[in-house]
Amino acid sequence: MEMKKSTITAGRCDQLGAHHDGDGVNFAVFSDNAEQIDLCLFSASDQSEYLRLTLPERTGSVWHGYVPELSVGSLYGYRVHGPYAPQLGHRFNPHKLLCDPYAREYSGNWTLHPSTYGYSLESAEHDLSFDESDSAPYVPKSVVTSRDMAGDDWAAKSRLNAKDLIYELHVKGFTKQHPLISSEVRGTYEGLSAPPVLDHLTKLGVKAVELMPVHAFIDDAFLLERGLKNYWGYNSIGFFVVEPRYFGTHGRDGFRRMVEQFHAADIEVILDVVYNHTAEGDHRGQTLSFRGLDNAAYYRLQTDQKRYYVNDTGCGNTLNVAHPFVIRLILDSLRYWVEVMGIDGFRFDLATTLAREDYGFDPQGGFLDALRQDPVLAKTRLIAEPWDIGIDGYRVGQFPPEFHEWNDRYRDSVRRFWRGDEHSAADLASGLLGSADRFDHAGRHSTASINFLAAHDGFTLADTTRYSAPHNEANGEDNKDGHKANFSDNFGVDGDTNQIQIVKARDRRIRNMLATLFLSQGTPMLLAGDELGNSQSGNNNAYCQDNATTWINWNEADSELAEFVASLSRFRQAHPSLRQGHFLHGRPRPCDGLFDAEWTDVTGKAVDWPDPNLSVFCLIIRSVCRVSDDPKCDETILIAFNRSKQDYELALPKLKDGLCWNREIDTSKAAPILDKELHSDSTTLAAASVAAFVSKELDKN
């Protein structure tokens, strides 16, 4: 409904965005350096601008106004007046319609058009020029939505164990080719919470799904010019907007329904969020929202050349998280996803950027301090990707104790050990005990390390055994993009092969790495499809491949591998010794003086760690028990790793009377999850295998 009166009053400044109170709409938007901000209203029928009103009041840096009798569903945008002086960091251009950073919904689509740039693409001065064409027909309009309603309070009632399995997935790619899901909802939020998906995740023991970006994002101009799209979504423009390309039959409401379905299945929902940069790119990029509202406030600019952006993200610009209103924007966004959409936690992309102050990385900086003190957000699960491409950007293990962190060192150590690299055994040993060398400080728990074998960025697990180098030709960058240090091994043949011995060796390698993951202290994370043998044909940077390259091929899924992973997950859940909260350092337990962790060779002697070719070793795990009658004290787990090509005789340590060893995992067997009671003091450890033995009471029958 269009408004009846073309009036606007001062309104309120305390709540940013557009908020309907039942009688009209209050608009409030931040800008330090603007000279005037116009509110533009558009017709819902043809999206033509029918009214322009100047926001009449400014309180500090917040411009605001109240429009009576304006209804929910109204379309709007802003035009901002101010200096266009790129050399001074200002890029105001009132000819460009800007989306509200606090918008909850958009109407219309983003179009790559010359008018969406603040400068003339034809000018020899490039971004120093000024373009007067109207961008309104080529950008979506912000939508006035009804009052935010609280989502379910499941997260407040049921906090799952932080040591449980996380599963990283892409909303579209996970179900786009799923044969048991209706074609109408494949690739959508609703499809993601369909019964076949929930059944699969429950069987795997997944306790949290980590969704790749679902904030509204746009396709990069350089990708559109190549006929490609931004598939991953790390190009955000709307921090409160649910990305519409994954809508199903229920539109935006389908997202909340999806979250509720996950919660009903006792699965948390974690969002991968991108607050380190925006989709507006560098100085040559479009003017869509933040740049036109206040470029010098929203972005970090080079001190001596304010025309250019600090680029710690590698994406052209870096949000100025040191600014109080940018901090406020991010915190308001996070709270919205928790309180309204029911989200349980967040994985912060390039989190080092969010912890940067003018003087560099600071784990006690403004944003992280505010986040940790927030009464809503402090209760959520917080995960950092602890690096960026800025100076000293690699910060694994250096985030505050409230954070879990992606541990790429763990990934690399597992790959290197099983590939046969020299001096890799000691690194793997550290990872098996939660990477205490990096995380055991400031009261952190061993769960701080997010252990993974593969993630969206890089080879899939299957491809680490099929390709020795990336095959990213389809990305249009001459195969120069993507990770170079993949620590992969194609076993002598690149890609698929019919050679049975190579196929078997690859399968064994995959199972050995998966067993290693589930037997490690820390928080395990699995990339969607790795349990199915999913391949991306060697593309290790498939960010622009919205096609069968990245869509999981359920018709060719390895069901035996999926069952193996489910068994590993059940084994981990059944044995708390494998998912302890405290770090193990080989110290005597208070209850009985036995060591909480011991390293031995296959004969029971000390491990020769300096041996560069060390290929076989054992780890004995005991729970850290505080009292002698703790039932956990009775369980001991022996894990043996053998990457060599020969079998070994494995000496089994002596147990207390009445106990024996049960072989419960053996990756060399067709059915690798076993329950075999051993009565001798030794057994065979097969070549290229992982085996786990658990102390059990003797069967008296």
Question: Helix and strand layout, with pairings?
Answer:
Layout: E1 17-20, E2 24-30, E3 36-42, E4 49-54, E5 57-59, E6 62-68, E7 75-81, E8 84-85, E9 90-91, E10 106-107, E11 141-143, H1 154-157, E12 165-169, H2 171-175, H3 189-192, H4 195-204, E13 206-211, E14 215-217, H5 221-225, E15 236-242, H6 253-264, E16 268-273, H7 290-298, E17 301-302, E18 305-309, H8 324-339, E19 345-348, H9 351-354, E20 356-357, E21 360-361, H10 366-373, E22 381-384, E23 403-406, H11 408-419, H12 425-432, H13 436-439, E24 449-452, H14 500-518, E25 523-527, H15 559-574, E26 597-600, E27 616-622, E28 636-642, E29 648-651, E30 659-666, E31 673-678, E32 682-685, E33 689-697
Parallel strand pairs: 12-13, 12-25, 13-16, 16-19, 19-22, 22-23, 23-24, 24-25
Antiparallel strand pairs: 1-2, 2-6, 3-4, 3-7, 5-6, 7-11, 8-9, 10-11, 14-15, 17-18, 20-21, 26-27, 27-28, 28-33, 29-32, 30-31, 30-33
Helix pairs in contact: 11-12, 11-14, 14-15
Folded structure, characterized:
- The protein is α+β, with helices and mostly antiparallel strands and 701 residues long.
- It has 15 helices and 33 strands.
- The strands form nine sheets. The chain has an eight-stranded parallel β-barrel with strand order 12-13-16-19-22-23-24-25. Strands 26-27-28-33-30-31 form a six-stranded antiparallel β-sheet.
- β24, α14 and β25 form a beta-alpha-beta unit.
- The longest helix is centred in the last third of the chain and has 19 residues.
- About 1% of the residues have low confidence.
